[in-house]
Amino acid sequence: MLQTASAGLTPQYQQYFDRQLLSYAKPLIVTAQFAQKRPFPKNKGATSIRFFRPDVPDRTRVAALTEGIPLAQFRDITYTPVNVTLAQYGEAIKITDIVSFTDLFSTLDQGVRLMGEDAGVHADFLCVQQVATLGSPGSANRYYGSATSTPFGRYSSYANLQGATNAEGKMKIVDLLWPFARLTITKAKKPEGAAYATIIHPQQAYDVMQDAKFVDVGTKREGNTVAGNSIFNGEIGTWYGNRIMVTTEGWSENAAEGTYDGAITNASVYTAMVLGREALGAAIMAGQSPFSPSIIVNNGADSGNPLKQFITAGWKAYWATVLLNDLWAVTVRTASTYIDAT
Question: What pLDDT, on the 0 to 100 scale, is given for residue 342?
């Protein structure tokens, strides 16, 4: 008896496409949450904004009084300006009419989602760049590691850190003590009044989380949403006055200080950032925020597209990020013992 089997009917079979898209890699961005976002109103005839920082209290301004004798000197009041000029950024996609007619995966919706994520990653990186290139090399920049031959594992130069082995140059939890002390000395305010924001790479976290002094965030404030004590996005733990967060979009270097090299998986130097409140700011034109971009869809015919053969969608933002107070930001550069086997 003859039997009809699937092998003989191969031409009639189609390949089934699962319309549920697979999960995809998403960056962990945390730096932008600490930027003080200030609105920039429209129609003011300006493309730049000036912030003003008032004087700090100074006990030496107080004088002893003598009865009946007026003061010889009066207290001056000054404001330190911080200027930033806005810049425009944007992105667009183009989808043909044939794709629209035969679309299986809602390409327009996927494009809008992807552009929104692009905007967020780009904006976060501009915030990272502001801090990572802070006065490099400068008083707010330190090079640390585990070498016992240097005081507290501190290296005197970027070149010395690069020349160290990964084990000598790895981050230790105690390396965060100097940033804490410096920000306290400069009277930096703390985000949410709780602790300074410390942002590190996964490679640095690989070393820090092996330190016996590291305190996992889950053992301290899990589920605690009391004001000033909530868990920051990306937070993994604490140490004294530092709340430690991990980002996949940090600043790494493999050639020269201040030169970003994100293509290097096993970079030679990783930059951690420690921030006080209002160290970083963002001026955003009304309706032009990269953190919640407005999508512009053009699906009509015009002189450049008379037959409606494609539609476009995109976003634009007009904004800028700036260090509002460079005394309230610190960078700590280290190596890492993490090695990507690939």
Answer: 56
